[in-house]
Design brief:
The protein is of the alpha/beta class. Helix content is 43%, strand content 20%. The strands form 2 sheets. Strands 3, 4, 5, 6, 7, 8, 9, 10 and 11 form a 9-stranded mixed sheet that branches. A two-stranded antiparallel ribbon has the order 1-2. The radius of gyration is 21 Å and the shape is globular. The protein starts with 10 loop residues before the first helix and ends with a helix.
Length: 309
């Protein structure tokens, strides 16, 4: 029988493409894969040259793939999931590893939850945690899960949700924009511009009200469809964005972004965590929730909520 000859691009480039399409941005993909933004961009460029077709029809308002590339990304997602499961079955282990399916809001998952998972995986009883980021318009009740984290919104009572923490919203700016001004004040916001995100309605207006600034500034803001796209735009210096500081702690510590007006902050939505009562994970899910709440407390978040629970 004649051997099948496959002509394939670098598998790394296919992995990066699937991740960018699934997460919606190069930055989000780089965070998930624990590599640099430029490394992802380089692989996408090489894949585009190999295919000789554009990968994305829109880049400024999010990485929107062409119809054909979106179809390819779906095939890749299924293939990588199958590879992951096959490797898990082959991998020898002296300790039984529990599998846990977790769903969480996309930006929270990529910027808060996933960076903390290595601490959990280093525990004496490791957990094979699969995190699925969800988006605002997803019907999370139709997604299989053992543990769910939700930001605001109604949660059926039988899930018995527990509070994780409540966001503190601050106006954040790329540091180089502040450094360019001798003295940065509210009047500079008109110069650098504001960013507003469709999936977080009212947050910019609430911050402007707390700062005593006219709400008309919100109508002049750059409107973007997803929060992680808004973060990308803010990091690149496209304007100031109202952000929960807990989601960008690394960038704050490195000085990449600054909070020019710390005296003006507002409360945002409360994150809640709960187990699926129909899940077979049982005790593993409960232990994971306990670890999550401890992680929130160790970062100075959720103390009030945890005390009330």
């Amino acid at each position: 029988m004649e051997q099948k000859k496959r002509r394939l691009p670098a598998l790394k480039s296919l992995l990066f493409l699937e991740c960018v399409v699934r997460t919606g941005s190069v930055t989000a993909a780089a965070d998930e894969l624990s590599i640099t933004h430029s490394a992802v961009s380089k692989q996408l460029s090489q894949l585009e040259s190999w295919l000789d077709v554009p990968l994305f029809v829109e880049k400024r308002r999010g990485m929107i793939p062409s119809q054909e590339i979106a179809r390819l990304a779906k095939v890749l997602e299924t293939a990588f999931d199958d590879i992951h499961e096959a490797l898990a079955e082959l991998r020898p282990s002296k300790v039984a590893i529990s599998n846990l399916k977790v769903i969480a809001p996309a930006t929270f998952a990529m910027r808060w939850l996933m960076p903390k998972l290595p601490d959990l995986h280093a525990a004496a009883q490791p957990v094979n945690t699969s995190v699925r980021p969800t988006h605002t318009h997803d019907n999370w009740l139709e997604i299989p899960f053992d543990v769910a984290i939700r930001r605001g919104g109604a949660i059926p009572a039988h899930f018995a949700p527990q509070p994780l923490f409540t966001e503190t919203l601050s106006l954040m700016v790329a540091s180089h924009l502040v450094e360019e001004a001798e003295a940065f004040g509210p009047e500079d916001l008109a110069r650098i511009g504001l960013i507003d995100v469709t999936t977080r309605p009212g947050e910019l207006t609430a911050w402007l009200k707390a700062a005593g600034l006219p709400s008309r500034l919100a109508r002049q803001a750059l409107k973007l469809p997803h929060f992680y796209i808004g973060l990308d735009a803010m990091f690149m210096g496209r304007g100031a964005l109202v952000v929960p500081s807990v989601l960008i702690e690394p960038q704050l510590k490195r000085g990449e972004v600054v909070e020019p007006f710390p005296q003006w902050r507002v409360s945002g939505q409360t994150y809640q965590v709960f187990a699926n009562p129909a899940s077979p994970a049982g005790e593993t899910g409960s232990e994971f929730i306990g670890w999550l709440r401890a992680a929130a407390l160790s970062n100075g978040q959720g103390r009030l909520n945890a005390a009330r629970a």
